[in-house]
Amino acid sequence: MEAAKQKRVNVEKAQNFMRQYRDPESRELKKLSAHQFMDVWSHYDKDGNGFIEGTELDGFLREFVASANPTEVNSEALTDEMLDELKSCFLEAYDDNQDGKIDIRELAQLLPMEENFLLLFRFDNPLESSVEFMKIWREYDSDNSGYIEADELKNFLRDLLKEAKHNNDVSEERLIEYTLFQLQVFDANKDGRLQLSEMAKLLPVKENFLCRQVFKGAKNLTKEDIESVFSLYDRDNNGSIENEELRGFLKDLLELAKKDYDASDLKDFEETILQGVGYDKDGKISRKELTMILLTLAKIPPNEQ
């Protein structure tokens, strides 16, 4: 009996991957575990580039719609015109950054998941600045290795659930599952740990202020613009940018030049940038030094940033 049931599930999975996750009676989607959600993601992100896009998105939408039918319906029954209309509506509803493709966080808005697992997608309420990010980084990179290893990531997730008052509902086994899931998604180079740029995708900042168009041309840069930047990073209002404030500023600068970077890249970048503005090695950046950096940045052609 059990073998027959498993055979039926395998047939449905082969015909329509999403059908196995719907209730056979109500046709509603079941709540997915971390493992099941990752199965769905891996199945449709066939090229493993971190997005469901193009023909991958077409295939997902066709199967998603067809799976809701109580009888087996070929996903190709959805006409191209219907697919285009569906895709337009789908992207309008779930493609938050309007890039025409679906990332893992956007998919998490669509599929129902176990409550505690869903929380791990809700903490992506963007941080106000990279200063906050660097404070979190320092707290959880407890061995100062320049990476967030699996045990440190698990501590981060445990504290996240604790803050949401859901930690008592999560077993150690489930917490390990969540940790492995996050590593599978965000550990792009598959070295079993998160470097700075990988953690930055897991814990995003609302906006890299330095990406704004005003910083692309020195003629457009005003004292008010410089003061806005200084205020953004001088979080304690002590008149200088230092410690995590400085690391956050440099992280945002580095992101203009590199998509993938680690702590050593940030350190090298710090030395290069600060030497270029006559840094006096007091561990701080003044308004004058910040002005020199921003004016230098604004003079660099966009294709060289």
Automatic annotation (TrEMBL):
What InterPro entries has UniProt attached to this entry? Calbindin_Ca-bind, EF-hand-dom_pair, EF_Hand_1_Ca_BS, EF_hand_dom, EFh_CBN
SUPFAM superfamilies associated with the record: EF-hand
Limits of the EF-hand domain: 32-67, 81-117, 128-163, 221-256
A single GO CC term for this protein reads: terminal bouton
- Extract the PROSITE patterns matched here: EF_HAND_1 (PS00018), EF_HAND_2 (PS50222)
Keyword rRNA-binding listed? The answer is: no
Q: In which domain of life is the source organism classified?
A: Eukaryota
| Coiled-coil segments on the chain, per record | none
- GO terms of molecular function: calcium ion binding
According to its UniProt record, which protein family does this protein belong to? Belongs to the calbindin family.
Protein name (record): EF-hand domain-containing protein
